[in-house]
Amino acid sequence: MRGSIEALVDRLKEEVYPLVKDRISEEEFEKEAKKLAIIILNYDELKRTLLQKFGLQAIRETQKKKISDIADGDRRLEVVGKILGVNEVITDRGKFYAGVIADDTGSIPFRAYLERFPYTAEDNVKIINAYAKAGPLGVILYITQNTIIEKYDKEVHVVEAGKKTIRELEDGMFGVELEALVLKVSKREKDIEKGPVLRGILCDGTGKIAFSSWSDFDISEGDIIKIVGARVRSYRGIPTLVLDPHTVIEKLDKEITCPRAETLYDIVSRGGGLDVNVQGLIVDVKQGSGIVKRCEVCGRILREGGMCPEHGRVKGTYDLRARVVIDDGTGALLAIIRREPLEEFLGETLDDLLAKARTDIEFGNGYNYLKEKLLGMYVIVKGDIVPGKTGLVFFVNSIRENTLDQMSEKIAMILEELS
Q: By C-alpha distance, which of 373, 369, 340 is closest to 355?
């Protein structure tokens, strides 16, 4: 009898204790196992009783899967992978851990609803009895109190398919890994009704991309960061990088140089871009430039008689804009220069132009005046190129004259092509 009890306890220490070693010492486990082994001689029942006693349900047969094969609704999963990063997330409902795990086939975000998560980036782990569920962020691996996590004693090789440059990002991508420079970032107090906590612009050697985050990461302008586990969503047809609680950010000690200027051909080829910087020649100033009136409700340009297409006859408010065509030698695009950058470029305000219109009947809405000031100017413009009703439109946020002597050759080239 004594021999059979000792055999049961030895087997339990070998097969069950590794599953609960983070919850109890080996000495305490052996003591509890001996007490129960005197009463329960059936090994399976004894194992189930011990697991329940230490907060684990008896685990039925698990299904071993590679990460790329995990699908919505999978249960009792057994997964081996490398932790790429993990964040502690505290909400009104409690605490959980969120991160990314990967193997040689892919990566997946995970959530661990545990009091303590003792694993960090680069740890190799085996996860037993997890489940997968799809949500707005895609399929997520869920780890609960009934999940067993243990160190894996072999090195897990991780696929590099998630590593991207900004130029390679496309709508719908998940598990993106990216190294970039933080060009701009704005923060505000967390309020789910007001949108993301962070917004900004990232760049690498291939381009720029806007990002937004619902989590408050400790990043500042000028930081070089590595991002793991991001996703890509389109806003007005332009890819935006979305960071969430599963995203892991690491600051890097390296240099990243952003492209100083891009060609219209490259930007148009990828469907547009945010915060782009282009050098080109203003080859046309279109009608509709000058002083305009907008609906004070929706901001649309008023038609003759002060008619808004949406709200009918309204009083309207004055505004200033220029509709120009910019050619950089690789392509041409309609650009809308808004009031603030146009005032700064002209050195005159809307009020100045309104005063001229009141004293000079030939001034009209200032179209000819703007045409004289803008046409043929070689400029550096910065802003967003996004889809409009009839194609891509360049909404200019800043404009300045390019006065460098070496630009004269390019201007001549563009003029020759136009002729």
A: 369
CA distance 126 to 251: 28
Residue indicated by tokens 């910019």: 326
Supply 171's token pair.
């709508």
The pLDDT value recorded for residue 407 is 55
Question: In the 3-class helix/strand/coil scheme, how is 245-263 assigned residue by residue?
Answer: CCCEEEECCCCCCCCCCCC
- From CA 18, how far away is CA 54, in angstroms rounded? 12
Question: Which tokens go with 121?
Answer: 């980036």
Cβ-contact 133, 72 below 8 angstroms: yes
**What tens digit of pLDDT does each residue of 134-164 get?**
876 678 999 988 888 888 888 888 876 568 8
pLDDT in tens, 96-109: 998 889 888 888 88
Listed residue (223, 215, 224, 218) closest to 242, CA to CA: 215
Contact 354, 319 (CB under 8 A): no
HEC string for the chain: CHHHHHHHHHHHHHHCHHHHCCCCCHHHHHHHHHHHHHHCCCHHHHHHHHHHHCCCCCCCCCEECCHHHCCCCCCCEEEEEEEEEEEEEEECCEEEEEEEEECCCCEEEEEECCCCCCCCCCCEEEEEEEEEEEECCEEEEEECCCCEEEECCCCCCCCCCCECCHHHCCCCCCCEEEEEEEEEEEECCCCHHHCCCEEEEEEECCEEEEEEECCCCCCCCCCEEEEEEEEEEEECCEEEEEECCCCEEEECCCCCCCCCCCCHHHHHHCCCEEEEEEEEEEEEECCCCEEEEECCCCCCECECCCEECCCEECCCEEEEEEEEEEECCCCEEEEEECHHHHHHHHCCCHHHHHHHHHHCHHHCCCHHHHHHHHCCCEEEEEEEEEECCCCEEEEEEEEEECCCCCHHHHHHHHHHHHC
Q: In this structure, what are the phi and psi dihedrals at residue 339, rounded to the nearest 5 degrees? A: -55, -55
What is the pLDDT at residue 395? 94
* Whole-number Å distance between alpha carbons of 251 and 246: 17
Q: Which two tokens stand for residue 356?
A: 């001229």
Does the structure show a pLDDT above 90 at 373? yes
Distance CA 241, CA 248 (A): 13
19: tokens are 């599953």
